[in-house]
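Me: I hope this is not a bother. Any chance you could explain this protein sequence and its structure tokens? It all follows right here:
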Amino acid sequence: MKCKLTLGNKYTLCSFICVYMILLGWLLPSEIPAQSVMLNDQDLYLTRPWSQGHEVDLLDAEMDKLNNVILNPIEYSAAKQLMERHLKSVMDKDTVSLRQTLNMGGRYLLILPDGSSMETADEFYAMHQAWFQDKGWTMEMNVLDFRETPDMAQCVVDAMFHESDRNVKPYYHKMWITYVLEHIGGQWYVTSDHASTKTKSE
């Protein structure tokens, strides 16, 4: 049996479709609750694809933060840069660079593994001037931890001291060294280090 689609039938079909679309619009909420994701401990809200505008909508302020994270990575702080210079000056036996990291005329507390100590930057610098003249040793140091506040910083270093010939045989001394830095008169200085033995040869 064939069914012929007459003009009246066409109007009836169109009316049915219109009513269906209206009812569908009433049943679906105009605004679907937004989803959120976390960015730097703050909510970044995304609207559903079928919400107003039919697109994902990112808050401009949060996008600016995201761009800053990607385009402007955090650089070394001034304190950490000074700490790296101090360590390098010891490894390179560079007295000029070492002096620039010290508050000359001020305090420097040095405590060595054998318990000996000194308390001024002038004493510390003079000792290193003499020590750097000895070409028979090397030292490697790696930063394990670095923390800072606006006025002070602390650095923990893994150090390996090596002498090619001590009493007719090689010598090594593995140490942990804890440094303290202070912000004095607008500048950072290393003001203390305490070395303790990890392992060493006889």
